[in-house]
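#lab-general

N.A. 3:47 PM
ok so I finally got the sequence cleaned up, no stray characters, all 314 residues accounted for. can someone with queue access submit it? mine expired

B.Y. 3:52 PM
send it over

N.A. 3:53 PM
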Amino acid sequence: MAKKKEKPAEEGSPAWMATFSDLMNLLLCFFVLLFASSTQDAEKIMRIVNSFNPQSYSILESGAISLAEGQIISGGVTQLPGIESFLEYIGVSVEANGNNDDIAASGADEGEEDRDKAAEEPDEIVGIYSEETKTDSQDDEEQLSEEALKEQMDEKGLEQSEEMYDEMSEIAELYDIDDRIILDYNSQFVSMDLNGALLFDAGQADIRSDARVFMQRVAAILEKYKDCVIEIEGHTDNIPISSGKFESNRYLSTARANKVLEYVEEHADLIDKNMKAAGYGDTRPVASNATEEGRAKNRRVSIKIYNQLNSESQ
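B.Y. 4:20 PM
back already:
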């Protein structure tokens, strides 16, 4: 009996191998995608964070890097708002303490929480850097406002002092003492300088008897400005005091200022809390102590009458 002729084997792999290969390829792609999505490039993230640190600008070695459409970083200058929130969104926690050293990666759970938070508060994330820019702008505006306010106060104070100066000049001329006082003014006060030789004997702090009428008229002028702060200052020349009653020129100048204050309060209705007295010795000369004329000018009692604006500020 003749043998049955066998069929020749089919060329190529069996049909089931194609299906199996497709399955393996799909599984491989699936696991590659899982691995890629769970891997963080720490070095790249470090460079991105360093470039966006507002206190430390640097140049990226790789040049410009595109992070999103229309948003790039290059040369250490950021065009991406909310970079810290962006890094938190991808699972990196940034703690900035004025440098770039404190950068730590967070876990997957923390990343999920940050993504939820970012989804709930998108306006806050986008507005982080705009808020900082706005704060800097407000600081500049406040500084300009303070300077403008100070300038306005100086102008207003100068107007008040000038008005007081004109009034005092008229009263001093009416009392016939305009040739024995020196008036001047600035934006804070009007100063009235009295010649020490007219008020005191050498090395003494008691007001001379022939100067009392003059001092009564000075007190009458001060009474008109009793609501203002009035400061009485004693000054001397630089020649050391020879009297044993006072230890130094500063003690002498202080005693003279106090004597003038006591005298004007006795002869005028003044407010004691608005009155001040101080002695400066030879520390604030108005002329050179090298000549007798200059030393005579330095031996003086200066009365400062502050304008209403500066009196209230004190």
